[in-house]
Amino acid sequence: MSDNQADPEIHDENKLIAERRAKLDAIREQRNAYPNDFRRTAEAGHLQQEYGGSTKEELASADKHYAVAGRLIRNRGAFLLIQDGSDQIQLYVDRKGLDADTLARIKSWDLGDIVGARGSIQKSGKGDLYINMEEARLLTKALRPLPDKYHGLADQEMRYRQRYVDLIVNEQSRKVFRTRSKIIAFIRNYMMDRGFMEVETPMMQVIPGGATARPFVTHHNALDQDMYLRVAPELYLKRLTVGGFERVFEINRSFRNEGLSTRHNPEFTMLEYYWAYAAFEDAMDLTEDMLRKLALDVLGTTTVTYQGNSYDFSRPFARLSVFDSILHYNAGMRAEQLADEAGAREIARGLGIALKDSWGLGKVQIEIFEKTVEHLLDQPTFITRYPTEVSPLSRRNDDDPFVTDRFEFFVGGRELANGFSELNDPEDQAERFLAQVAEKDAGDDEAMHFDADYIRALEYGLPPTVGEGIGIDRLVMFLTDSPSIRDVLLFPHMRPE
Question: NCBIfam families from the entry (predicted)?
Fold first, then answer.
């Protein structure tokens, strides 16, 4: 006995597929099995919107005729339910009005088939709209049966692997991706309305830069050289600012060769923008305004509910430095100890943090912050003044060069954005690149490369500039109440079946 025969569900599915193939073969003997000459004149959503409020009598006297098409998702005998990209609508099988050949074809339809129908729009006694079929066409034969209508596609992994089936049977999934599209459209329009120009920069780069992350490596055959999928578009966008485009943005795909989790996917989408003659405070103001208006536009409210908790975007977002946030969320910790490298290392060891000898005070403080603070940043919060040691592209603060004019935005205990006043001193930038190279040589796979062309660009002069990256996938998770990043990616990365 084969494995398929041993599993009753697989055996039943194979039997159904065989039956459907037999029907397809019979259709092929008579006509084109995949016609493309049926043209619909209305979508289900349009009809529901226009006639949903009409009475049965009004529609009967109006005698309005439409052609509709969609996937057959339910068979109720005299009434069939189809679904198109906008909504659902019923088809009525008038056994007295339709000829025998048409009735036989309709009877051979299976759930999942894509069909077309033409007839008058009517309303049933229960108040449901339907098309009283005068013409019925099979447009595409579905060879595989849809999942059980009551249980849907319950297996989470199968939902991700077979997203096409998930979208057919799960309205919530369709809603999430419609919302994602709306979020991206809002962000694009928001930036353009404020004078930012949308641009495109290379996805394959000779030197990966713009973030500390392990890159994906590929090979360019014509140039006979290794190239990297970008970890961020930052350095190219700043080259454009050097060139005179003073407000630029890119809704970009970036790639980081890192682990998979509910919050991480190796391929992800960001908004990244650069704004000349502005500082990190301006970027925080823009971010706060954009996210508040985005929530209102997408959800109709500035109160966002995520995983049972409410987040208020109507109030001013909290702003707190890295150093002050550590003291705020760690009662009894002394500022003098945290500000001293030996003292900070003692604190970190007490928290069970594994330290490297090469780390300075700034890196140790960030490790303490990530261990004790990050997950507690629930309501919308900007964390500012990141140590220079962990901010290789950020401008040093004028009053305290130990820290930079940088911020990260957190909500629900997770980071959604990172921005800073840009380092535009080419000599300082070259020194920091060299420090990154030393870390890479010491075994840090995420450290940056030395980008000589970017240094050359800075030598032509980058105006005072602020830049920011906002993680769109995590933002969509938050605004759609989705617990995993895979829920908001149409085709998330998966291990092979």
Answer: lysS_bact, PRK00484.1
